[in-house]
Amino acid sequence: MPTRWPGPIWRELITSDPPERAAYADHGADLATRDSVMRSLRGLTHRERAVVVLRYFLDRTEKDTAAELGVSVGTVKSTNARALKKLRVSPELTARTGRV
């Protein structure tokens, strides 16, 4: 004979105070930021984009990034600097942050 659960696994807690934040957050701003970043990354060269993604999105060291791309650490550093300079003036990102 199958075992029967004694009741629901969770129970609703009734309080007089509403929760401090909404149960379902609005992710529209997050999606807009992600879209802006993706558009800005498309403006970089293939190598610049690879360096930025490896260094900042995948949290790789300069040495690991250099090994992955088959270039020197100095090339990673200079490519990263060039890419970040382009991203700082990217119209997509400056419009989102209001910075110039």
How would you characterize the overall build of this protein?
The structure is a single chain. The chain is elongated. It has a domain of 53 residues: Arc Repressor Mutant, subunit A, CATH 1.10.10. It has five helices and no strands. It is an all-alpha fold and 100 residues long. The mean pLDDT is 84.
Low-confidence stretches: none
| Total strand segments | 0
CATH superfamily of the domain at 45-97: Winged helix-like DNA-binding domain superfamily/Winged helix DNA-binding domain
User: How far do the termini sit from each other?
Assistant: 71 Å
- Percent of residues in helices comes to 55-70%
CATH topology name of the domain at 45-97:
Arc Repressor Mutant, subunit A
Name of the CATH architecture of the domain at 45-97: Orthogonal Bundle
Supply the number of helical segments. 5
Tell me what portion of residues adopts beta-strand conformation. under 5%
Largest sheet: none
* String of helices and strands: HHHHH
C-alpha Rg (nearest Å)? 23 Å
Output the CATH class name of the domain at 45-97: Mainly Alpha
Structural class: mainly alpha
What characteristic shape results from the CA principal axes?
A: elongated
Q: Please state the oligomeric state of the protein chains shown.
A: single chain
Overall average pLDDT: 84
